[in-house]
Amino acid sequence: MPDGPANEFRFDSVDDVRDRLRKVDYLSDEGIAGIVYLADRLGKPILVEGPAGTGKTQLAKSVAEITNARLIRLQCYEGLDESKALYEWNYKKQLLRIQASKADGDSTGWDQIEEDIFSDDFLLTRPLLEAIRAEDPVVLLIDEVDRVEVETEALLLEILSDYQVSIPELGTITARQIPLVFLTSNNTRELSEALKRRCLFLHIDYPDMEREKEIVLTKVPDISESLADQVARIVRSIRQLELKKSPSVSETLDWARTLMLLGVEKVDAEVATSTANILLKYQTDIAKANKELSNEASTVNRAAK
Ligand SMILES: Nc1ncnc2c1ncn2[C@@H]1O[C@H](COP(=O)(O)OP(=O)(O)O)[C@@H](O)[C@H]1O
Ligand SMILES: [Mg+2]
User: Fold this and answer.
1) Does the model's pTM come out above 0.85?
2) What are the residues whose beta carbon lies below 5 Å from ligand 2 (ion)?
């Protein structure tokens, strides 16, 4: 941890994290809230991993919201480099400065010019440096870090362990405060040991039925307890199938909203099969789910007789 002004803690307890997240409609559990609490206390970044659509990105956004912090987001992609992640010299402006001094009849020596053009005024700040230099509270989100090449991860290491950035022409810039940092990964490749070592690790899986029902109740206006319950139940049974792509929480929400629009109160096999394309995006998955859904419905019907 760097020296400097002591950070005030953002949360009083794990329950405090949970309650405040709930107030902004993010339904966490003990594991999620616990790690956020620890990250704040220990001044460590959180590496959040898990399937798509389980609330990894949303967690960072929601934590920014409840701590009144500005969210600074670095969206990772293949080919992301230092000049887009960290900083870049504004070479157009530098050129103009050089030309201007020539036009002036040039009493300034090259050394002076060089010092000039490698100063703050000529620096283009990208998200990582912006987060380090921020004076207001920030949450740094390094989203989908598994998309960058493993070599590019090295860019992040100095920031994640020391909260500082070295710029050869300017020196080392150290954070004035330790920001909360979230890295997310969809696990498309293994991250380096060096990166993992610097982070607290949080795996967010699909929520259990109770939590998913709560998410639906929170996020879908006017939905009944009974419909939310059926939705959570059916989605869970679909996730147990061997699928190419399981439905994510966002798809559960889309499905619940669709059922509301259709005025459905009871999800029978017919409704479920005719709307399965909202939950699932592969024809083979839809076929599997439909088979399961009609079996399930007939079992329920038989039991009712
Ligand atoms: N625990 C949760 N509480 C509330 N909403 C959630 C939760 N998890 C997921 N969601 C919903 O699912 C959507 C997708 O989440 P997102 O953070 O984009 O997924 P990921 O980044 O994991 O792919 C969010 O916008 C949010 O509406
Ligand atoms: Mg995301």
Assistant:
1) yes
2) 57
